[in-house]
Amino acid sequence: MFALEEYTKRLENVKKRMVEEGVDVLLISNPSNMYYLTNYSAWSFYVHQIMVITLEDAQPIWIGRQMDASGVAKTTWLDEHHIIAYPDYFVQSKERHPIDFVANILTEIGQSARTIGVEMDVHYFTALCYERLKHGLPNATFKDTSSLVNMVRLIKSNQEIKYMKRAGEIVERAMRAAYDCVQIGVRENEVAAAIYLAQIQGTPEFGGDYTSIVPMLPTNENTSSPHLTWTDRKYKNGDFLTIEIAGAYKRYHAPMARTMSIGNAPNEVKELSKVVEEGIEATLDFIKPGVKACDVERVWSKAIGKYGHRKSSRLGYSVGLSFPPDWGEHTVSFRPGDETILKPNMTFHLMPGIWYSDYGVEITETVRITTDGVELLTNFPRNLYEKPVLSILPDEHTS
Amino acid sequence: MFALEEYTKRLENVKKRMVEEGVDVLLISNPSNMYYLTNYSAWSFYVHQIMVITLEDAQPIWIGRQMDASGVAKTTWLDEHHIIAYPDYFVQSKERHPIDFVANILTEIGQSARTIGVEMDVHYFTALCYERLKHGLPNATFKDTSSLVNMVRLIKSNQEIKYMKRAGEIVERAMRAAYDCVQIGVRENEVAAAIYLAQIQGTPEFGGDYTSIVPMLPTNENTSSPHLTWTDRKYKNGDFLTIEIAGAYKRYHAPMARTMSIGNAPNEVKELSKVVEEGIEATLDFIKPGVKACDVERVWSKAIGKYGHRKSSRLGYSVGLSFPPDWGEHTVSFRPGDETILKPNMTFHLMPGIWYSDYGVEITETVRITTDGVELLTNFPRNLYEKPVLSILPDEHTS
């Protein structure tokens, strides 16, 4: 848990933005934003829960399911008056909806006719949540504040950076575990298992947390599609794969991707890897406070463009604290049109993956903007790793 | 992948329900429903994607992000005419929304003025998705079909049952790994790591898949709140904990929870465990085809009520195929008011967890309704496990 002063400061920053946006009441559905403001981290977001911020109140109010209320009391700084539970018969019911209960609470505390910010495009704030809310609060005015708290999270505190560096140490171990495990005759799921073990064991000094996206490790032609996970197929000589994973410490993430092969990689993969490596170098040389997010992408595009390559997807995105289903923060992206000026202690997943129709290469870094440049939060060789093939393999004969 | 005939049958069943509900077009946002109909399982649901079912078309249409399209082509039975990709600049943008793209496609294929079913209360169909859809299709009529496909999934095929039994084998191994790992001086995260390792390694015959909820293993007073995960605190003599996990095979789940202690458990935990065990026996004796879901809960309540205990939350829910953030199917629950009549090959997580303000007990089973009763999908001792304390523990001196 962070010091109470840090939570108070975060809440103040959120309230400042609420005033700027003309919002009296803010309803938070995004578990990352709830955690950011209160330390609440339970896996209870699969049922509806809402955190209410009003300009007047010094604490957020959590409204959620009965069986989760004691977890809020035990793990956050909220007092008992700011923890309100709805009965279990609201859960996944056809007759009742938890947001009806939330609307009643807002009415009881005199907030029914205010301007209310809602996270319109956040998973967990469903279309039906909004319909029920409008129905229950006919005199309220609603405003989309999907990224209001996310924008407050953009610049990290020193303690947050420390957490992300720990996450960086964890992902180094997890990637090493994957490299060590991949071999002819080994099943894809065994590599995923080795990654999980390293991610959650963490280091002797600190334990690991679950990551908001599972390991993604498509092989061969499936590397053209980065979000495929794994099967129980056995690796064969000449297979190549991309491995995109993260380390997590207390919900803070450091993602990383690498590309490897068993024995020699195909020529196109080798060549593309070199282009990506060179592009990363050029991009890292450029990144510093004061430059724009879109210009980072421009430098990258130029670096790979001279070899005839082109990446049609964004080059990266803000990263840090998160809950499933995404480890991105949904704020700033390295892509044309994003004019955000980079500032110290912003953190990004620099994501120079290139996916063609039958193969892909991913080599990525999690980076922090420093006072005069950029710092890597992980330390792991970037080159394509062509793993030597063992000459004696008991499994090979049985596969 | 299931046989094409099974997918065709599933799609037919969905269309039948569409006709019953007066829906011409069905938009699917729930990744479990997408997978059920097409085998698409990539972790791409963190950006907006929609599957379109029309009564006329023999295949669903997938509409999603450019970089994911080749994964759809490579892992599903959809042909290239049924895979439509939106450019990356729609992703998490303030200017553009993927659902605008979807609305345009629906207009192009002549479906803009139809009755369209949308999954109003599904994570991934956000409030903004619905607003953009209404804006883009002003002549359409919308209907809430949140559980239309889920209801089709309620009765499992034999192959689905086989998958769930495999998941059951995996969760047995994972629970055994947890029991073996918990000990004085061991950190909570190391137990979580042992669970993950067993979950993903699976068995020598088949590999494990990730589960839709992470391991939940609250200790001592935190057992009052079932959805807390883990920390890196070290276990001490006398600690007690609940462990709620699942095994997963090709996205099919078998959840299971158990309660254990290091050395002697507190008396109230021992006593409550016995009550829960007896309640489970009574409940299992009762469950069979033809009885109502609400009556299952009634039998349970009576069994524990005679000892003065009461459970305020539902006793269980339909389970099977799922994606994060939940392994429940959001259809049938064992609770008052649910009049669903049980039928063979329905599958449930029988969830007799009881949570009081300072402790809780969870002992659960995944069950299948058979032709004349009920079958457990896992085989694991149900009693409270009081793990003997080792006399020589090197870690103990350093903790």
Automatic annotation (TrEMBL), chains A, B:
Keywords carried by this UniProt record: Hydrolase
Creatinase N-terminal domain ranges (all copies): 10-155
Location of the Peptidase M24 domain: 163-370
CDD domains, sorted: APP_MetAP
Molecular function as annotated in GO: hydrolase activity
EC number: 3.4.-.-
Name of the protein described by the UniProt record: Putative peptidase
The species this protein was found in: Halalkalibacter krulwichiae
